[in-house]
Amino acid sequence: DTPCLSELRIVLLGNRRAGKSSAGNTILGREEFDLKRSAQCVKRHGEAADRHITVIEAPGWWRNYTVEESAELLKQDILLSVSLCPPGPHAVLLIIRVDITFKEKERKGLLGHLDLLGERVWSHTIVLFTGGDSLLDTSIEQHIESEGQDLQWLLDK
């Protein structure tokens, strides 16, 4: 008996080249996001399943960078991304490529960048894996298990 939302607000976060633009295009069902690297937040709208959908793509951070190593402008844009869909996003899609190993350095970088948005961000965060075709005959569950504790930590979080 949960009421259906007539509007859905989504923020796409992740490191550079994670597939945020492709994910946004898939959600909206058309090419709205340029597949080249975005240096600032990009906001697009669409309709799907009788819902108005707002998708904000935040610029990505370099994969091996901690939040302290990232440019101040990037940190400001990550903060801006959630304010571009008032009163805030329903979901933060954290885009993770499966064809790149996720270890402690990536975990620390990701945690630092998401922490910019406060602890409450985790209650709205959904992990979206991209590049699944590279897994071939491996299931996503097998991949997660093979990656070890850092990726498992992220999913538990």
Automatic annotation (TrEMBL):
The record lists the lineage as: Eukaryota, Metazoa, Chordata, Craniata, Vertebrata
Q: Which organism is it from?
A: Cirrhinus molitorella (mud carp)
Domain (AIG1-type G): residue spans on this chain: 5-157
What family is it from?
Belongs to the TRAFAC class TrmE-Era-EngA-EngB-Septin-like GTPase superfamily. AIG1/Toc34/Toc159-like paraseptin GTPase family. IAN subfamily.
Keyword line? GTP-binding, Nucleotide-binding
InterPro entries given for it? G_AIG1, GIMA/IAN/Toc, P-loop_NTPase
Q: What is this protein called?
A: AIG1-type G domain-containing protein
